[in-house]
Amino acid sequence: MQFRKIKERDIVELDDLFQSCLKDLVTREKKSSELIETEVERLNRIVQDNLLNGKTLFFVTEIHNQIVGTIALTKPNEFITDHVGIVENRYEVGCVYILPSFQRKGIGKFMFQQIKKELVRLGQEQYYLDAGFSSSQQYWKHVLGEPSIILHDYWGKGEHHLIWARTFN
User: Is the pTM of this model over 0.70?
Assistant: First the structure.
């Protein structure tokens, strides 16, 4: 597996990955298909932000020259800033997507280890992460433990939004 920053030539392949991942999530979690377009647009804006000004640090993982996963360090989103007393100049770990056919093969773990190394390189000791999809929430609970904040019924009855604020040495 190769972990690297995105390049302009990755734009089309990233859009395809986002489309594939979100179609899979929406189908598995029985969500509105309208979510696909909205979320893909948001992700593509983050990619463009990375390419234009570098304030967002967007990375991909490749296997045999195919992009199979993404992860980014971004400015904390509104879910986080509205509900957590954030520390200035800290990143949110976000945009974690893995092609459905490559899930459950250690790629998420690999990317998270790499992004933690990037945080250390940047002199960061704290980060934020949030999740709205239940499958993502279960994964992050396994990796990070219980969330710092639960926004109960945020997406509807029994559909919570979870936020983690974590520090590491």
Answer: yes
